[in-house]
Amino acid sequence: MQRRVVITGLGVVAPNGIGKEDFWRACISGRSGIGHVTQFDASLLPTRVAGEVANFEPEALGITRQEALYTDRNTQFALAAANLALVDAGLDDALSEAERNMMGVYTGSAMASVTAGEQLWRQVTDSGTHPPRESANGTVPITLLMTHAPAAAIAAHFQLHGPCMVIATGCSAGSDAIGEAFWAIQEGQSDCMLAGGADSAISYGGFAAFCVLGAMSTRNEEPERASCPYDRRRDGFVMGEGAGVLVLEERERALERNAHIYAEIIAFVSNSNSHHMTALPPDGEPLQQLIRQAFDEAGITPAHLGYINSHGSSTPTNDSVETAAYKAVLGEHAYRIPISATKSMIGHTQGAACAIEAVVTALVLERQVIPPTINQEYPDPLCDLDYVPNVARRATIDVALTHSSGFGGVNSGLILSRADWRERQT
Amino acid sequence: MEHNTERRVVITGLGVVAANGIGKESFWRATSRGISGIKPISRHPTSELPIAVAGEVSDFVVNDYIERKLVNRTDRVTHFVLVAVQEALQDSNIVLEQENPQRVGAVIANTMGGVEYLLEQARTLYTRGPRFMSVYSAIAWLQVANAGQISIRHGIQGYCKTPVNDTASGLNALGMAYRAIRRKAADIIIAGGCEAFLYPFILFVLAHSGYAALGNDPNAYRPFDRRAAGLLAAEGAGICMLEEYEHARRRGATIYGEIVGYGQTNDAHGLMAPSSNGSQYARAIRLVMQEAQLQPQDVGYFSLDGQAIPSSDQGEAEALHMVFGNELARLPVSVPRTILGHSYAAAGALDVITALLALQHGIIPPTINCEELDPRYGLNLVQYEAHPLPAPSVLLGGRALGGTNVVLALKKE
After folding, report:
1. Which of A64, A74, B79, B254 could form a disulfide with A200 if both were Cys (CB 3.0 to 4.6 A apart)?
2. Cα dihedral angle (A299, A305, A307, A313), rounded to 10 degrees?
3. CA dist., res. B217 & res. B230, Å (int)
4. Could you say which of B123, B130, B268 has the minimum Cβ distance to residue A128?
């Protein structure tokens, strides 16, 4: 029989809350984490709002002084979220070497180490105007440029000797990291994985590269209302930063140690648009395929599905294309299934997005409460499904889908079920 | 675990862009003879840089292969990989149009993205302002650009991934693709790695990292040598067409070899060069030999990581001693990347291509530059010229800053 994989720990660093409970409270009360950009001077850019993580104190979240020296903000977010997740899973106590040999780390990243890299580049080349020279303080830590640093730093911090890498599939990176970790446990390469994603790209270069694409909201006057997936006013995504890390565990092992199980992962699927670097084709065909494939893998039908945590990026095309794809695949169920977009509250946290959304989905299954999509004011006739507007609600949910459509055309999806759902099926 | 019904994964096409040859024929001619591709860096001024030589790809005219519009929207790293993919597709004789596009994938490793494109645009941003920055900045820069552009160009709609794991990324790409095909997530995957980071800022950071050899000596990459002082960086791309065995057999494809094992462990010793302790690397080698059902005498040669950092070299040698014991003295080992430089995410893929060509030709490509091999490592290093290959399997190792150890096993049918 195939090994099964459950979620036993959650760690999150998000613009509207740090730690599972803070974050959840913010989500169910519909609290936005979007504000004016403070991390760099955005006055020259058309977009000046972002989801920044406030009051992030690395040392309070278990990051050592030494680690803080050679890691950037994105890696520190990942370390903090991993720490929170392991404590939540009750795995923070001394683990044996044999256990740590079977524990690994996969994290997603979309934006590499752009913020720290940009800073270093400005320092040693004066913004590219002369060849690189010794900087004033003389240190040039290469670790700040390494996209794989978040996963490697987590492995080192917790002495985990299993598989370790970063997956950089744009906005689907978090799902891909979780999905690959799910497979690694299923296949017996590891028994436990820390999986998720992290990004922090709120820098002049990181921001400008997306501004010039015309992909970001310019609703600068009302930051907390700027990310409004499915609403008629939506005008682009809002960049966020943060990290989400989940503890995935082989089910027998989790049961044996009496771990709390949030949910079970029952399918991971992914495909590629083969269409455009930044957009789905208008009919959302790849997304339809993705959802069908996910149902096949999970052995479920639309009737089983009780909740969708959508990609809902608040760009004009994504949200209507996504809605069209739901209708095509789910038929009449499309109108029944509650859908919510976490990005309405925290913006698009890029490599962290899917991981944070997986955290939300796991909590929805555990608590049977659905956080809202906020900023639903002016309905768009093209987006006429139940997006759980503005207010959280109770519901009975056994099976949930969370999916993403990434930069570069990678779409990924995870299907999660309530911890005891499969047992109740037989 | 024994599974007789398990799907097998074979390699049916190769594509190469390397410092010592573009195309598998010229690459093999140079690599099998130890003809180095290291030369003075010519694309950027190096007079103020601590590094002046590298495995730079020369005589690469991108417009010979790719339409101008796409060239302008993509970085050099994507140019390399698109050319390598084109070659691998041709080499495999596959007609992708006849395949179900959802069963075809692309797993392309890369560590630095389109860093040259990005930094040129960043300079424009800082000196002239955002209105002058290219619309394609993000599209050309992010690591996923490579898999994304391949997917668009070749109509690939299946499993596409972008592993990033420093100098081990390329082996991760092949390993991930192997596992994906085995578990039926795809039937065909274009897998490999690419890198193009020989840009002054990156060379400067690399020079300060302590992991790269400084100066202008083209023979400075000397793993396991008494003078080992770091690697020489390189650029390029290596692509393998991975295919499910029955699929390849049905269409009468030429099979270079089979991937029979993939495993990884982590030293977890910090964001530092690969550890001097070989125990976790040894564990990865054992896991893979077990999965591949290989005995020491089955291994034709071990393609080593060879960071040329004394402590990392020591860790690698220690791992080999732990696994092979007395048999290590007769196990041929080689570091062919001394010939073409270390191209980070492309390196593992280029090592695999080298190994597949070694299996085809029955010879082991040599390691160069190691005239003062350190005897304390006790390695049977193939040096100066190719040696006959004693057995039809190859093990490949890759290690990374941050502790990852990746091992892959290849076997000729």
Report:
1. A74
2. 70
3. 12
4. B123
Mind listing the pLDDT tens digit of every residue in chain A (426 residues)? 799 999 999 999 999 999 999 999 999 999 999 999 999 999 999 999 999 999 999 999 999 999 998 899 999 999 999 999 999 999 987 899 999 999 999 999 999 888 999 999 999 999 999 999 886 666 777 787 899 999 999 999 999 999 999 999 999 999 999 999 999 999 999 999 999 999 999 999 999 999 999 999 999 999 999 999 999 999 999 999 999 999 999 999 999 999 999 999 999 999 999 988 888 888 899 999 999 999 999 999 999 999 999 999 999 999 999 999 999 999 999 999 999 999 999 999 999 999 999 999 999 999 999 999 999 999 999 999 999 999 999 999 999 999 999 888 999 999 999 999 999 987
Whether residue A167 and residue B161 make contact (CB cut-off 8 A), yes or no, is: yes
Query: How many CA atoms lie less than 13 Å away from A406 in the CB half-sphere?
Result: 39
> Contact at 8 Å (CB) between A266 and A7?
no
Do A274 and B156 count as a contact with CB atoms less than 8 A apart?
Answer: yes
Assigned token pair, A48: 């000046």
| Mutation to test the B interface, candidates A41, A164, A270, most B Cβ within 10 Å | A164
Q: Which two tokens stand for residue B238?
A: 């290596």
Q: Decide if A171 is catalytic.
A: yes
Residue of A285, A245, A264 lying closest to A12 (CA atoms): A245
**Interface test with chain B among A76, A106, A142, by most B beta carbons within 10 Å:** A142
Distance from CA of A289 to the nearest CA of B (A): 9
B53 beta partners: B40
Q: Cα separations (Å) of A324 from A311, A319, A339, A381?
A: 13, 9, 13, 11
* Torsion sign across C-alpha atoms B313, B316, B192, B102: negative
Interface test mutation site (partner A, options B81, B108, B144, max chain A beta carbons within 10 A):
B144
Instruction: Give the length of chain B.
Output: 413
A148 given a catalytic annotation: no
Residue B405 contacts A where some CB pair is shorter than 8 Å: no
**Cβ atoms B261, B291 nearer than 8 A:** yes
Residue A283: Cβ within 10 Å count: 12
CB A303 within 8 A of CB A337: no
B102 chain-A contacts, CB cut-off 8 A:
271, 289
Using CB atoms, pick whichever of A147, A163, A271 lies closest to residue B102: A271
Q: Is B270's CB within 8 Å of A164's CB?
A: no
How far apart, in whole angstroms, are the C-alpha atoms of residue A3 and residue B219? 50
What ipTM is given for this predicted complex?
0.97
Report the candidate in A263, A161, A23 with the shortest Cα–Cα distance to residue B266: A161
Dmax over CA atoms of chain B, in Å, equals 65
The whole-angstrom distance between B402's CA and the closest CA on chain A is: 5
> Quick one: CA torsion of B102, B108, B113, B117, rounded to 10 degrees?
-70
